[in-house]
Design brief:
Elements lengths: L14 E9 L3 E6 L17 E4 L2 E5 L5 E9 L13 E9 L3 E5 L12 E2 L4 E10 L1 H4 L12 E9 L6 E2 L1
Parallel strand pairs: 5-10
Antiparallel strand pairs: 1-5, 2-4, 2-7, 3-4, 6-9, 6-11, 7-8, 9-10
């Protein structure tokens, strides 16, 4: 009897996790492990969802203060865009000094169930952020006490910077 191993499906993540992230002041961060402790001062205005800084990215949220559900997927190559159920999808390229990038809540402990992207030092990676539910929490004066907003973040290595895209 022959045993064959199917090659991995390129659309499937090599690592993934889902956890609650606490938004503070309308954002959370993707930080480079060699980056500055706070990237807000040099983060560009961006596209309304992702603002790039020299040592990471700010992810804007509709939840000004409070919890949101985040799923982080790490891929080998660009996965297909998952448009169903998402209100906004934005993709950008970012540089990493260390080759390691992770989610940081800034005012809370890092979410333990979210993996760390581990690439090559001094390289580029792509970030695709899917957003749903952000409009539902904007009318709440103090933010939700449970996650209403959802984000899906897909990260993969790339050869060079390329233009941002939006779906």
């Amino acid at each position: 009897m022959n045993s064959r191993h199917a090659p991995p499906d390129p659309a499937e993540p090599v690592a993934y996790g889902e956890d609650v992230v606490v938004s503070a002041h309308g954002y959370y961060e993707l930080v480079d492990h060699d980056g500055a402790p706070e990237i807000l001062p040099d983060a560009a205005t961006g596209n309304g969802v992702v603002a790039l800084g020299s040592s990471g990215a700010l992810i804007s949220t509709g939840t000004f203060h409070g919890p949101l559900r985040v799923r982080l997927e790490i891929h080998r190559t660009s996965p297909p865009v998952r448009a169903d159920g998402w209100h906004r999808i934005v993709e950008v390229g970012q540089h990493t000094v260390s080759g390691m990038v992770s989610v940081d809540s800034h005012f809370a402990d890092p979410p333990p169930q979210l993996p760390t992207f581990v690439g090559t030092p001094d390289s580029w990676y792509r970030i695709r952020v899917h957003v749903a539910g952000g409009h539902a929490v904007r009318h709440l004066p103090f933010g939700p006490d449970h996650p209403v907003e959802r984000h899906l973040i897909q990260i993969w290595p790339t050869k060079e910077a390329s233009m941002p895209t939006e779906e």
